[in-house]
Amino acid sequence: METFNDVISEDRPVLVDFFATWCQPCKMMHPVLEQVKAVLGDKIRIIKVDVDKNREVSARYQIQAVPTLMLTRGGQVLWRQSGMVSKTDLLAVLDPFLQ
Predict the structure, then answer these.
(1) pLDDT band at 42 (very low <50, low <70, confident <90, very high)
(2) In CATH, which of 3.30.365.10, 3.40.50.1820, 3.40.50.150, 3.40.30.10 is domain 4-98?
(3) For the chain, domain boundaries
(4) Catalytic pick from 7, 23, 78, 93?
(5) pTM of this prediction?
(6) How would residue 55 be classed by pLDDT, with cut points 50, 70 and 90?
(7) CA 53 vs CA 8, 20, 48, 61, 89: distances in Å
(8) Please, what is the Cα angle at 62 between 77 and 26, to 5 degrees?
(9) Catalytic residue among 8, 14, 16, 26
(10) DSSP state, 83?
(11) Taking 90 as the threshold, does the pLDDT of residue 99 lie above it?
């Protein structure tokens, strides 16, 4: 079974969505992430991490608000932001990391 560390250590960028099932902004981010994935395809991997079910990982990355998006490549955190992000803004942030 693939672990969180396996996934974020990939050579391609991995966008991690730290979310909670009770969080309304998290629910609003879901379609945005689907649209971003539709645009970027295999250039990026997007995973969701439920902070209530994955407390150890959430604590390790000091997740204090949801949603928090974190971009990694090769195990390194390249970018992170808490709160809602529009499709346009997220694509603009991700673009330099996909070159």
Answers:
(1) very high
(2) 3.40.30.10
(3) 4-98
(4) 23
(5) 0.95
(6) very high
(7) 18, 9, 11, 15, 29
(8) 85
(9) 26
(10) S
(11) no
pLDDT (tens digit, 9 = 90+) per residue, 56-70? Answer: 999 999 999 999 999
For residue 93, give both structure tokens: 């942030």
Instruction: Note if 98 is an active site residue.
Output: no
The total of other beta-carbon atoms located within 10 Å of residue 55's CB is: 11
26 catalytic residue (yes or no): yes
HEC string for 31-64: HHHHHHHHHHHHHCEEEEEECCCCHHHHHHCCCC
Task: Give CA–CA dist 16/46, Å, rounded.
Answer: 6
Token reading at 57 = 């990982």
